[in-house]
Every structure is written in C-alpha cells, then in structure tokens.
Amino acid sequence: MKKIGTLFIMAFLMLSMVSFVVAEDNETTVQPTEFEDAGITPGNIFYGFDKAMDNIRVSFTFNKERKAERSLAIAEERLAEAEKLTERGQLERADRSRAQYEKFLSRAEKSIEEMETNGNLNKSEQSIRSIARIQDKFEDHQSKISERKTNFLENHAENMTEEELIKLDELFEKFEVKSEELIDKTLKKRDNIETKYKVQAELSDDELENLLEEIDSEEGLKEAREMRKAKDEQRFVREVEVRERNLERMKVRLNAENLTEDEKTLIEARILKEEERFEDFEIQKSELQLKMDEKVKEIQESSEEDAEKLIAELGEIQGEIREEAGERRGEVEARRE
C-alpha cells in the first residue's frame, strides 16, 4: 500500500511538472547560471526521478529555441555532476554523467536542426536571431567547460595521482569535443538560414553582413564575446601556472620516492605529456602577448572612430592563435603516437 502511495505521489508530481513546463514554454526563456549546480547525483534515491523530470521538461518544451536552451541547461547540470563525482573519486559514475551530458547536447543540436523558415521572410529573420542567441549560449557553455577544468586543477591537482589526472583530462576533453561539435553544427545551420534569407530578401553580401552585425549588436552578442575572450585569456594564464606547478611536483616525486616500475612509467609518460602541453602553452602565450601588445599600441594611437575596428581585429588575432595552438597540439599528439 505504501509503495502504491509513493508511485501515486510521483505520478502527480510528474503531471504537475508537465503542466508547469507547457505553461512556461510560452512565457520565459531559460537562463543558465554562471555555473549550474550538480543537484542530485548518482547514488541518491531520487536520482532516477530527477533524470525522468529532465526528460519530461525537454520533451514538453515545444519552442525550438527554448528547447535547445533547456537541453543545454540540463547538460550543464550533468557537467557539474561529473565534476562533483570526479572530486569524490567516483570516476565511473562521472563518465556516466558525461554520457548524459552528451545526450542532452544532442537534443539541443536536434532542436537547432529542426528550425525551419518555410520560405517566410519574417520567420527567417526570427530564426537568425534565435540561432544567434543560442550560438552565444553554446559559446558561453564552451568557455565554462574550460573554466571548470582550470578551477578543478587549481583546487585538486596537488592531491590527485597521475592516473587520476590522466582520467580527468580525458573526461574534460570529451566535454570539449562534444561542445565544439555542437557549435560547428550550429554555425552551419545559421549559415544555411542566412543564405536562404539573403535570396528571399534579395540582399547583397554587404547588406546581409550589415544586418547580421546589427542583429549581433541588438542581441548583445558582440559585447558578450569580447567579455568571454578577456576571461578566457585570464583563465589560460592560470591553467599554465597550475600545470607548471604540477609538472614540478611530478618531477620531485619521480626522483624522491621509491616507486614500482609501473608507477615510474606512468609518471614519466605524464611528465612527457605535460611538457609537450606546456611547450604549446608557452608558444601560444608568447605569440598572443606579442600580437596583443602590438594591437593595443595601435588602439592607443588611433582615433576613437578606428578603435572599435582595431578591437575587433584583436579578437580575430586571439582566435587565430587558438586555432594555431590547436593544430600544434594535434601535431604533437600525432608524433607521440
């Protein structure tokens, strides 16, 4: 009897949630916090119910933009969940949370793919604005992944074994790869809708470009990207410092402790990987600083009218350097294999 009563309560809560989500769908947008809280984690008696509620919230959200936003918010909860489980040393459960994270990012991706304009000019512009807002949230999410990883390393790296550090890097790399895939697909969808809009509205390339800049400005996306770039550069320097300290710690341990051959091999492999990574970081940091110094000097010497253009070019330089550093890391990995 008690079991039946519990099931009845759960069913009632589910129905209440459905009604709430349907009503909310047409009234609000989803605003992820700076860092989503992990909430209920695996092992908790209510974890299965919590996951079911997440699925219901997404399934009964019919607006495509809000569906993507809600899926992203839940994915961020799973990211926080994986981080919390990693902190507890529960790496297998953390990987299961990572799989749930990928599931909800895939649902966000599907919502973007389903956005259609049906040849309607007004709807095409609305879709461009919707995808621009979603793109901004996805880019912000990608930045959060890097920030969480750096924070975790700052707080826990010194107390982690080499094996745990390797698994941590592998876990966050999976988060980063999935997030990058989502952004790439979103950009392709946006490009597709923009191309259709250009034909429908009979716009020139310059007219379309001006419209897109206007949309980004009105939605506050340009300012948000500039703020993210500044934060990413600060985080980048912090991660270099953390990894440098960790590298020195591993070298001390390798020389000072009585280790088995397997332990020595693992630490040596980790040191090699960190040295390669650190070399890339140093190259990237020095190139970035040089180009930024040159551009800042230009901005200081320019008129107010030209300053905004130069700031935009500074952002492009930062993007190019990140891309170059990524290619270098790929080359290093290929040589190591």
Written account of the structure:
The chain is an all-alpha fold and 337 residues long. 84% of the residues lie in helices and 0% in strands. The chain has 10 helices and no strands. Helix 2 runs antiparallel to helix 3, helix 5 runs parallel beside helix 8 and helix 8 packs antiparallel against helix 9. The relative contact order is 0.07.
How does the overall form come out from the CA principal axes? flat
Distance between the ends: 61 Å
Largest sheet: none
Write down the overall mean pLDDT: 77
Helix content: over 70%
Q: What structural category arises from helix and sheet content?
A: mainly alpha
Q: What are the key terms here?
A:
337 residues; mainly alpha; 10 helices; 0% strand; disordered N terminus
Short characterization:
Helices cover 84% and strands 0% of the residues.
List the helices and strands and how they pair.
Elements lengths: L1 H24 L21 H13 L4 H24 L3 H23 L7 H36 L5 H40 L3 H14 L2 H36 L4 H41 L2 H33 L1
Helix pairs in contact: 1-2, 2-3, 3-4, 3-5, 4-6, 5-6, 5-8, 8-9, 9-10
